[in-house]
Design goal:
The chain has 304 residues and is mostly helical. Helices cover 75% and strands 0% of the residues. It is built from 13 helices and no strands. 46% of the residues are buried.
Length: 304
């Protein structure tokens, strides 16, 4: 019996604890993979990272893809699936492109605003009713983004705009994923990696640097870690209620600060820390409010 299968046999309390543990483990792996990606793009192009990282991920997923190959022939709303993959590919590229120029903690801070963007767009795009309490939390969250962004003629940069644009794309991606809930997880995950593979194949010839054997190992590790983290997130959400495990995703900012300081010597500014705290507070309020009202969870897994 596999490890995940054994976890599924636990009693409710043990399952919740296992779900929390897996969520924390997945966030550590996502953060480690992000730091590894930032380290890689200091030498290689973003296109190479997307291509070789996706190659490793798809090779790991290949047995599951083959086992569930029939699911790929009966996709619901193919055009919406294509839009989802396009947005996923663009936001991953935006994330790693932003890390070339910005500290890891800054980029993660912009992405932490995703639940706030999702809630705001749900009211605008999907026509969902949003009460004044959640609109207030949304506005407070935007204030946190502005504090972290430190907007002025001197401080607003295009890397920051890329990171913020990637976060917005991720929010729209989550809205689309909501409406594709019948699509199996393996289809959603593998299609995202396939999208980054295609974009990487287009981008990588520009500025190609032949990787060493050690660098190929880093590319492979980045892909394998992203798959392992995604599987842990999915299992976590099946073991415990989303209201229990999803808030632990905010631990990503802690790891971003740690990895940013240890690996890259980045010291987060006071504005970034304050902005992140405001964003986290607003996001948690929105999440708890959604749970109280019995609505769809506005937060989602970190980017693949």
């Amino acid at each position: 019996m596999g490890l995940f299968a054994k976890l599924s046999t636990y009693d409710e309390r043990s399952a919740r604890l296992a779900g929390i543990g897996l969520m924390l483990l997945s966030i550590f792996m996502f953060s480690f993979g992000d730091a590894m990606g930032k380290f890689i793009v200091a030498t290689y192009s973003v296109g190479q990272l997307l291509l070789l990282r996706a190659c490793a991920a798809l090779l790991v997923l290949l047995p599951m893809i083959w086992k569930q190959r029939a699911e790929f022939t009966r996709l619901e709303r193919p055009w919406l699936q294509l839009l989802r993959v396009t947005l996923s590919t663009l936001e991953v590229a935006a994330f790693f492109l932003a890390t070339v120029y910005l500290p890891l903690a800054d980029v993660i801070t912009y992405y932490l605003a995703c639940p706030i963007f999702v809630t705001a767009l749900s009211g605008i795009v999907l026509g969902e009713r949003i009460g004044w309490r959640r609109w207030t939390a949304i506005l407070i969250g935007f204030c946190g983004v502005l504090i972290a962004l430190r907007p002025s003629a001197q401080t607003v940069s295009w890397p920051a705009m890329i990171a913020l644009g990637g976060s917005t794309s991720f929010a729209v991606l989550m809205l689309i994923t909501r409406s594709l809930r019948a699509t199996p997880d393996i289809v959603l995950a593998s299609s995202q990696f396939a999208g980054t593979f295609l974009l990487g194949a287009i981008m990588s010839p520009f500025g190609w640097v032949t990787p060493s054997a050690g660098s190929l190992g880093l590319f492979a590790a980045a892909g394998i870690i992203s798959v392992a983290a995604l599987l842990c997130v999915n299992r976590s959400l099946k073991l415990a209620p989303a209201s229990v495990v999803v808030p632990y995703q905010y631990s990503m900012i802690v790891w971003a600060v740690i990895f940013g300081f240890v690996v890259f010597g980045d010291v987060p500014s006071v504005a970034t820390i304050v902005g992140a705290a405001i964003i986290i507070g607003a996001g948690l309020y929105i999440f708890l409010r959604e749970q109280k009202l019995g609505r769809e969870d506005p937060m989602a897994s970190p980017p693949v």
